Amino acid sequence: MFPTTTGVENLLLRAINKSVEEGICLQLLGEDYGSALLEKYKKRIHKIFNPTNIVRTGFSLESAQMVLLDFAKVCVNNNERWYGDLALYFAECATEFIMSYGDMNEAFYDALGDAYHDAVVAASGDENLYKLWKNRLEQIVHEFSGFGWGMENILSVSDKEINKI
């Protein structure tokens, strides 16, 4: 006889199975599925960084990071292009958030820097990705020129990895 599962275990299994299902579909169905899936995750991140009423609903960096982590699980089989694009989008949204709401805490800058770095790592291994993302990457660095507790310097260190191409 099989052991029964609780409601929490069922939710956990469904969540795990969902990322596995999406990952397999990404491998098998290719470009169209990947683009649609990426847009789905981008919408989730956009909604977190751009709530309809930030005073009432608040903002959760952890929620935004969780979306990125969920997508990383989907992209586990060398889908750096898809994950890198979402990481870059996360960095763009975080940058826009800072420019709209002002200076943030260190954890926020760390999350932005980590996402930016992940995008740079993906682009550094693929010249076509670099060409595709070059303007987006440069725009983020430009936004932090003289602002953000040295964030421009941190981002520039990541950019040096790309310059090896």
Write up this protein.
With 165 residues, the protein is mostly helical. The chain has one domain (7-162). The protein is built from eight helices and no strands. The chain is globular, with a radius of gyration of 17 Å. The mean pLDDT is 83.
End-to-end distance:
57 Å
Q: Could you give the count of β-strands?
A: 0
Name the helix and strand elements from N-terminus to C-terminus, one letter apiece.
Answer: HHHHHHHH
Task: Indicate the radius of gyration in whole angstroms.
Answer: 17 Å
Largest sheet: none
Number of domains: 1
Q: Class by helix and strand content?
A: mainly alpha
What integer is the average pLDDT? 83
Strand content: under 5%
Shape: globular
Share of helix, binned: over 70%
Query: Which stretches of 5+ consecutive residues score pLDDT under 50?
Result: none
Total number of helices: 8
Summarize the structure.
The protein is mostly helical. The protein has helices spanning 7-29, 31-49, 54-57, 61-74, 80-101, 106-124, 127-143, 151-162.
